[in-house]
Amino acid sequence: MVKKLLESSLLILLVSVLSRGAIFILNVFIVRALSPEQYGQFSIIKSTASTLEGVVSGALGPITIKEVAKKDNIDVLGSVFAVNLIFIVSISTIMIVFGNSILEIVNLEADYFSLVLIVLVFATTKGSTMLQNILFGMERYKSSAFSGAFSSVITILIALSIEIDGIDVAVWLVAIYYILDFTIKFLLINSCFNKITSSIFEIMNIFKSTNIFIISMLISSATFWYSRTLLARSEGGFEELAFFDVAFQFLTVIMIITGSTTSAILPMLSGKGGGCRRSEMKLIWTSIIINMVVIAIFSIPLIYFSKNILLIFGSEYYNESTIRLIPVICLVALLFTGNSIFNKYAIGRGKNWIVFLSSSVGCFLSVLYLLDTGIANSIQLANLFIIFYLSSLSVYLIEVYFGKR
């Protein structure tokens, strides 16, 4: 089982590096093409879309992997697809109806075009993530890696051949990657979709399973999103947010890679490889070691060569604020990964209430921090991430400790 976890983790690591590598390179092109003020606006648009997508994927992703892993793939695919589609359509509709109010909160001018860009990134990202979770549940990691590689190459070639002269072009480049990735993944499992059906009972069962996860993700995602809007509305404005987002790109890469590699645990705890508690804990510790190695591989060169790496984005982003952020985001990555591992462990064991409790505690302490200090610069925003993930991880560790007694 440990050997299988190692193989699965390495394949998922490859998938994540390919997908996040492409987005990271795209962001380098975009940062260098836009002014800090424009990039800050692009960042808040992308962040709003990512928050919406994160709520749905955070709630449905683990359940999708778990359900596809423990049941006949054909039986559950239709229902999983239907539930995701319902969420995509519902959230897109809400965004269109209440879009002006949301744009006002994030300090953007209320115009229909900005709204369309947010919905576009949300829908394309969610579609791609949904199919990736289905492939992970099937343990078809090579198929997902192929899709990521092909989409990355095509999107980067497009970025090299055009001029990025505005926020709209930047957003379209991100959307193109996810559209390509979704299309290829869909074609790879199209033979399964040709045979599937879905039932109202199965759909309602998935909805019932995701209720507590949706609330948990709303709590955590809203905390991070609102803290970003506070920074955008501070004296530094979008320029200060741009400095944070440049450093945050490295954190996002690590978070998505380790968040994905920890997903290898779920199929093994969900019917195909689940076993006694001792075996489960062995999987957990193996996953911790694997992901600590991954974090070290990324963090040590990042901290040591931070000055040189930041210059890739342009001289405007080589300043004291961004340099100080690099070691902080590596610490955030460490705490996030611990959260991700024990989150999957709790879901695999059916202890969904722990997921809700950890998010609630993290949110509560983060709100206390906001009330005490506010968010006036990028360092304060990074500190909020530390507070959230440290307190959330503490809840998981307390549950594991007392759960063994």
TrEMBL record:
Transmembrane intervals: 12-34, 76-100, 112-131, 143-164, 170-193, 205-226, 246-271, 283-305, 325-342, 354-371, 383-402
Q: Does the keyword Nucleotide-binding apply?
A: no
Q: Where in the cell is it found?
A: Cell membrane
**Record InterPro entries:** Poly_Biosynth_Transport (IPR050833), Polysacc_synth (IPR002797)
Coiled coil residues, start to end:
none
- Which topology term describes how it sits in the membrane? Multi-pass membrane protein
Please provide, in alphabetical order, the Gene Ontology terms of the cellular component aspect for this entry.
Answer: plasma membrane
Alphabetical UniProt keywords: Cell membrane, Membrane, Transmembrane, Transmembrane helix
Pfam families, A to Z: Polysacc_synt
What PANTHER family does its record include?
A: O-ANTIGEN TRANSPORTER-RELATED, PST FAMILY PREDICTED COLANIC ACID TRANSPORTER
Q: What is the protein's name according to its record?
A: Polysaccharide biosynthesis protein
Organism equals: Vibrio splendidus
